[in-house]
Amino acid sequence: MTQYSMDKIVALAKRRGLMFQSSEIYGGLNGFWDYGPLGVELKRNVRQAWWDDMITRHDELSIPAGAPSTFDMVGVETSIIMHPQVWKVSGHFDLFCDKMVDCKESRKRYRLDHVKGRWIESVKRVQGEIPEGAAPERVFITTMAEIDERNDDIEKKALQYFGLRSKDAGKLKFVSEIESLPPVEQFVDVIAPDARSKATLTTPRDFNLMFKTTLGALGTEDDAAFLRPETAQGMFVNFKNVCDSSRVKIPFGIAQIGKSFRNEITPRNFTFRSREFEQMEVEFFCHPQDSLAWYTYWRDRRYKWYTDLGISSDKLILREHTHEELAHYSVGTADVEYAFPFLPAGEYGELEGVAHRGDFDLRSHSQGKLRKEGNELVVEAGADGKPKYLGSGKDLSYFDDQSRERYLPHVIEPAAGCDRATLAFLCEAYHEDKQPDEKGEMQERVVLKLHPRLAPVKVAIFPLIKKDGMPEKAAEIYREFKRAGITAAYDQQAAIGRRYRRMDEIGTPYCITVDGDTMSADTVTIRNRDTLEQIRLPVKEVVDHIAKLVR
User: Fold this and answer.
1) Backbone angles phi, psi at 488, to 5 degrees
2) Per-residue confidence (pLDDT) for residue 149, from 0 to 100
């Protein structure tokens, strides 16, 4: 399967009004992105498809044995700024950190796990041959570029450091495969990205990713608050409200779509890693004894959602976390990952995580911040022996009025990134081919093969020529689609083949042409973007026909 370069996809995104860098006329702001006229429609369609498939529609996967044949899914919309105690109890205030290093030479800052490189040995020192029996000089050369065996930047940097020329490349030995930075005690042998000397990196330190802000006019430390780094906590603190105000029974889910903010050290790879992003999350509450079955259910359902909307299974994996990767509260976590074009062959980037969180969150918000002792979660104590961060003190248990049982529900959390999903669908849809123009000559074509539910424009209406009543008839059909709530485009400029190409490039699945037969027989031609097949239908049937194909 062809993998197209990220540069081509980014160029198309800007050229066709999908995404732009935020504040671009002022040089841009790293880690923030704006969606243009077509991009906002694409992202809105991703968001709507998620909401429809997770909340509104009946799913097609088998419900766990013994579970109710139906279950409730309800939505909430919670505030971006919450009580500061929420983040202290959840662990974000203390633990939501990445390791950061600075380079004293280049004055640049890096996230530790993003800096990769290779150990390289030289059989020659700059001064001459290595004495017999002496160890060759060895250095860990890092780069922010993606690394493979043919990476010219790594080799060029190594040649410069060892004082060799390109003809001497055979005197270099690449000792290791791609890996993260070596242990801190070996930083003395590291050449950092954009540096020429060794040992320029500082000791790694924690960097909290939450954006801090101030409430009210006084601006004291007591007025400090945070932009939420995830939408999940808004659903946990509303668990009791939802139970008390709605007729929901366990098992049930609470869903939310909303903005989150993380002060990423090194935002990169287009919209994949941003400082402002949108999440689509479900918190599914279930009986503890059923939780493993529900975890499997949601893990498989979420993987299927991506393939149903056009992501090839060849580029998608469902990866279970190893025991070492699991968060201290997690019973199990699986990531849905996609082979983004900016990654080396064989590597995948996370689209969403499906986590079995146990009763960690409801316990935390009831009792206080928890930490693991052995196999148990206990309330963490401060220096005075009292709880370090107190919970709300509210009883967040659930009472089953049928079984007369009271318990703390377990939670399964499918947490997807709306921006990452939008980027993945865009990358997957990008294709190049050759198709005949109106004269039968083969022409290069860029086409976005987006699933019709996701396409920014569902249908385009063209008059074949700008006379004989065709523009007026095409405009009438266009208005019918708009009245039906179907996103449509009208275009009468340039040759019909060029208009088709314009619509192919933005992913429009169907084009309708008003021609001479329309004026005499009241029929139109409908062209399929992917197969190029054309059929004729009566004008009175086209809106219903297209509606069935794109919804």
Assistant:
1) -130, 160
2) 45
% of residues, the chain, pLDDT over 70: 95
**Closest residue by Cα to residue 462 from 540, 522, 523, 515:** 515
Give the CA distances from residue 443 to residues 111, 312, 438, 497, in Å, rounded to whole numbers and listed in that order: 45, 26, 10, 10
Six-digit token string for 187 = 């930083």
Q: How many whole angstroms separate alpha carbon 523 and alpha carbon 300?
A: 44
Count of residues in the chain: 551
**Rg of the chain (C-alpha set):** 28
User: What are the backbone angles phi and psi of residue 52, rounded to the nearest 5°?
Assistant: -60, -45
**What is the rounded CA–CA span in Å between residue 491 and residue 507?**
15
pLDDT (mean) for 204-213: 90
Considering only CA atoms, which of 31, 429, 16, 512 is closest in space to residue 267? 31
Q: How far is CA 538 from the centre of its chain?
A: 42
Long-range contacts at 7-13 (CB < 8 A, ≥ 24 apart): 8/430, 9/341, 9/426, 9/427, 9/430, 10/270, 12/430, 12/446, 12/448, 12/505, 13/39, 13/270, 13/426
Strand partners, 283: 254
This prediction's pTM = 0.87
Residue 467 has pLDDT above 50, yes or no: yes
DSSP string, 478-533: HHHHHHTT--EEE--SS-HHHHHHHHHHHT--EEEEE-HHHHHH-EEEEEETTT--
